[in-house]
Amino acid sequence: MSATSATAPPPPGPPRPVPPHGAARPRPAARRGVELCLLVAAVGISVYGYAEVGLARSGAVPKDALAYGGGLGGLALLAHVAVRARARYADPLLLPIAVLLNGLGLVLVYRLDLEPVLGPRAAPAQLVWSSLGVGLFAVAVLALRDHRVLARYTYVSVTAALALLVMPIAFPAVNGARIWIRAAGFSIQPGEFAKVLLAIFFAGYLAANRAALAYAGRPLPVAGRLKGLRRLQLPTGRVLGPVIAVWLASVGVLVLERDLGTSLLFFGLFVVMLYVATGRTGWTAVGLLLAAAGAAAVGETEPHVHARVQDWLHPFASIAAGQGPSQLAQSLFAFGNGGALGTGLGQGSSYLVGFAAKSDFVLATAGEELGLAGLCALLGLYALLVARGFAAALATRDPFGRLLAAGLASILALQVFVVTGGVMDLIPLTGMAMPFLAQGGSSVVANWLIVALLVRISDRARRPEPEQPAPAGTAGPDTPPPAKPRHPESTESPGSTGSSGSTA
Amino acid sequence: MNRCVRHAAAFCFLLLLALLANATRVQLVEAGGHAANPANRRADIALYARPRGDILAGTRTVTGSRPTSGQLRYVRTYADGPLYAPVTGFASQTYGATLLEGTENGLLDGTSPALHEQPLWREITRARQRGGDVHTTIDPAAQQAAYDGLAGRRGAVAALDPATGRILALVSSPSYDPGLLSGAGPSVTAAWKRFNADPEQPMLDRAIRQTYPPGSTFKVVTAAAALAGGEVTDLRAPTDSPDPYRLPGTDVALTNEGPGCRDASVYDAFRYSCNTVFAKLGADLGPQDVVAQAELFGFNDNELRIPPSVAKSNVDTTMSPDQVALSSIGQYDTTATPLQMAMVAAAVGDGGRLMAPYLVDRVTNHAGTTVSETRPHTLHQAVGTRTAAALQQLMEAVVTDGTGTNAAIPGAVVGGKTGTAQHGLANAGTPYAWFLSYAKPPGSSRAAVAVAVVVEDADAVRADISGGGNAAPIARAVMEAVLKEPAAGVSSPAGS
């Protein structure tokens, strides 16, 4: 699905400008009506799921089903109004998918709240967090007229990200990971916000230094039989240094905090964005090698991580050892019980997974009660979201936006992969929240922020140019022309005053 | 740069494909293995998610289900646990299920395909079938009478309807409350430990799972073999039997409890339970005849299911003459379950035809529709009708003018046989008191009920222990309950 979208032409937007002066282009459709219809469908499906839980558990539709529908509908409407006001040309799929995923997440958390063994209710808080997330989405869409403004905050972002990452070290660990900040009765997971900030930093930095990264380099200092490797050129330390430093710092902090999932996510984000920025496979290889080396080192030295790897290789070892099934084994049991069509909402036994059933393992409930069919549908929604993110990246005319959209889409894709793969024994379990679906306020808010940025970028990408002769070369060719010291697009690099007046 | 964006998108698509392939592996390919994993509690949870079907005795529901707040929602309850424990067994979330709860488990919990009306639709909807109800053949009045008669003494009662093989009562005493084992948790574990450690063995189903030396009650079988083989033609003719009788090939002299057994006729020997006469009869017949006759009555049968399995009642097939002599009076290696001896009495009372005993009359689904029904069938023609008539004469004499007068029921024709079985090292153990009998309702030539009673722990002195004293009143009470003539209370055992 995402491949077709990724290789298909970008959504009907402005065709590539025809030099020297663009003729009058047809005005692209805003597609807000489509979005509204899809939003109604998304809210409807969520309310239907909510009603289904009540019917399965107590034989009656929950009394507050309409209230839930109204609340979710109100949030969706708020977001839609914001988009209609300030991002008329945004991709009409992004917001409905996010609303549907968030709505289904609320249904799943509500359904797990019905199991007393899983502790206190979490759905009300989750609804509050979702409202905050949608509010932040609306504020971001309304306030941020142009995503390129963010490029100015490249270094602010990275400072803030690192600060956020370091913070939890001062707080007590929960279940072996120090990833929470506790304040005033509630806790936030700074790593979730750091991923967005890091994406902004990588995008800004790489967009500014793309040329240098791609070309300014020395051959590898090798001789003799390895001469072939000389083609791999290393950029100067001056260019690469900050990136490596930031990345090492973030990963180092993560090792200290034992948050394997976020660490894996940052690795992946770093490698993907570096590849997209430079187009050098060598970088990717180096990144992957570094990742593998890092993973191996951490896996050997950290008992916590080592145990996770062992559990991944032998998920049923604890049963053989007479200690009962591990969380992962329980998760696999739940998925297996779901089979092709699932048990139906509210009728599974995924509470056997234990305390993490609402957060890390929320997919086990989805897999058991909605079956393989439902799981495929959920993964399809994520794939669609990611694909629209990449489509926005392809349609965007500035390198920063392109890198940022690709980075944000990659974050979603990687996070879905790491979480789903973890709970289904494809990769070691890392303990991250499924975007929009899992219980976890920080995660929901951060993911709404990602959607807001994608909405903004896709709006910019599809918006018709203002009625003035476009400066030549607002859009560079895909492949950088050889030996051009300065890229035309660097007129819009951070720091420059090239803020094109948006005519919203 | 856009080329690289496409590459990145393609990479994400590969990740998605990996997830889908893996999901198919976990949810479809390996699902069966996960479901069968003993550590996966889902099968149990689903099993106990709905009330279990019930077991009924007559119109009485003797089981129930009680919702709990635990993971396994419904727990089995028993209306009158100790009374019906030898019939129902227990259905425990911790220790599994036994007896009817075990053999009919699939029907009671709804997993049996016999209950399903539209299997394919069920497969799609995954709806669980409600459990069916098992209607037993037990007569609550007879069951209660037997239980009250034993009054906590160690022993067992089995009662049959001779014409069909329906089991009317199955009592084991002392009993236990299976409801205490239903759930899970420390109280259940403690009850399990307590029951298993109890020297009284309350969880032993003595009526069908325990074998006892049948003692003198086996003389019915010996007499049947002698009559059927033509060894004895005239019941009143004196036999050539010394008193004491030296077992062939040994120096062991066999004696009798009472006088008047020298050269006694079979009729008198049966009435007074003369060991010497029947031991010699058995020795004269030889092992083949005695064993063949015993097997026609149901001995040496490993396959008997009612549907719970019944312990094998044993007669050795290769014996020396002295062993045959001892076996013929129910000693040596001869052992029988109370149900087996009830079958002997039933075959005699029903004119020689032995019906296969059964406990489940029919099974209905939750809606009350019958899904299966037991049809009575003949197990063996144990003896011919003439032999059966002769045996009836012998047994009825025991009650009218012999060791079993305690079993007499006014207006009904009752035939019986007492037994006292010695056991233990050098016969030092407390003897078992046996009584087996049948009763014909007034004006009927066929028996309506056959009973076997064994009482283990008669605390009285040896001389007082006789089937007539301890066991016959219990048999009478059960027979009266079946004949619908309520007894005026079980009379206290009188010495015979």
For this entry, give a set of tags.
heterodimer; A: 504 residues; mainly alpha; two-stranded antiparallel sheet; two-stranded antiparallel ribbon; 4 strands; 60% helix; disordered N terminus; B: 496 residues; alpha+beta; 5-stranded antiparallel beta sheet; disordered C terminus
Describe this structure in words.
The complex is a heterodimer of chains A (504) and B (496). Chain A is 60% helix and 2% strand. Chain A has 17 helices and four strands. Chain A has helices at 2-7, 32-58, 65-86, 94-113, 123-143, 154-166, 190-208, 210-215, 237-257, 260-278, 281-301, 303-313, 317-320, 327-338, 362-395, 399-423, 441-462, and strands at residues 181-183, 186-188, 217-219, 233-235. A two-stranded antiparallel ribbon of chain A has the order 1-2. A two-stranded antiparallel ribbon of chain A has the order 3-4. The longest helix of chain A has 34 residues, at 362-395. With 496 residues, chain B is α+β, with helices and mostly antiparallel strands. Chain B has 19 helices and 18 strands. In chain B, strands 2-1-7-13-14 form a five-stranded mixed sheet, with no helix packed on it. In chain B, strand 3 (63-67) and strand 4 (74-78) form a beta hairpin. The longest helix of chain B is centred in the first third of the chain and has 28 residues, at 2-29.
